[in-house]
Amino acid sequence: MPDKPAAAAAPPIRVLIVDDHPVTREGLAIRLSREPDIRVCGEAADIPEGILRATEIAPDVVIVDVSLKGGDGIELVKRLRARLPAARALVWSKLEVFRLLGEGLSTNEIAGQIHLSPKTVETYRARIRAKLGADSGSEVLRQAIRWVIENS
């Protein structure tokens, strides 16, 4: 019985990262590059650059920070869907909630700024608390403040 030919490996998932924080973009790119089936094909810092890069490289997935300087990540996703309907979008918001907590915003203020419901922000806060192994919301807040200070 002849051997079956090996199935061709699927091409890697092409990812564009759009975030206005260079350290976040670089860290995410490094993390994703460790995955054999993912290839970071571009980075952008804002909406105009994100649209330009996405149009140039036609990524499979666009990872977008929900809160970009000079604009809203959700607006970028809407624009990209109109131009590249096959591309999928992943909106990056849990870290954004942590950062905004560290900047002293309330749950309602965070919800308004990143266009989520207060209930969703509370859910993210609970998940952050669990991931950090924090005993209280106050401990999460202290860690968030420290993170903002260290990363600004």
In round numbers, the mean pLDDT is 89
Largest sheet: 4 strands, parallel
Percent helix: 40-55%
**Which structural class should the secondary elements be placed in?**
alpha/beta
CATH superfamily of the largest domain: Response regulator
Strand order, main sheet: write it out.
2-1-3-6
Total tally of structural domains: 2
Give the end-to-end Cα distance, rounded to a whole number of Å: 64 Å
Regarding CATH, which class of the largest domain? Answer: Alpha Beta
CATH architecture of the largest domain: 3-Layer(aba) Sandwich
Instruction: Please give the radius of gyration in angstroms.
Output: 18 Å
Task: Say how many strands there are.
Answer: 6
Tally of contiguous helical segments: 7
> How much strand content do the residues show?
15-25%
- Unreliably modeled segments: none
Quaternary status: single chain
Structure description:
- This protein folds into 2 domains: 82 residues, Rossmann fold, CATH 3.40.50.2300; 60 residues, Winged helix-like DNA-binding domain superfamily/Winged helix DNA-binding domain (Arc Repressor Mutant, subunit A), CATH 1.10.10.10.
- The chain is globular, with a radius of gyration of 18 Å.
- It has 7 helices and 6 strands, in the order βαβαβββαβαααα.
- With 152 residues, it is of the alpha/beta class.
- The strands form 2 sheets. The chain has a 4-stranded parallel β-sheet, with helices on both faces. Strands 4-5 form a two-stranded antiparallel ribbon.
- The mean pLDDT is 89.
- Keywords: DNA-binding, Phosphoprotein, Transcription, Transcription regulation.
- It comes from Urbifossiella limnaea.
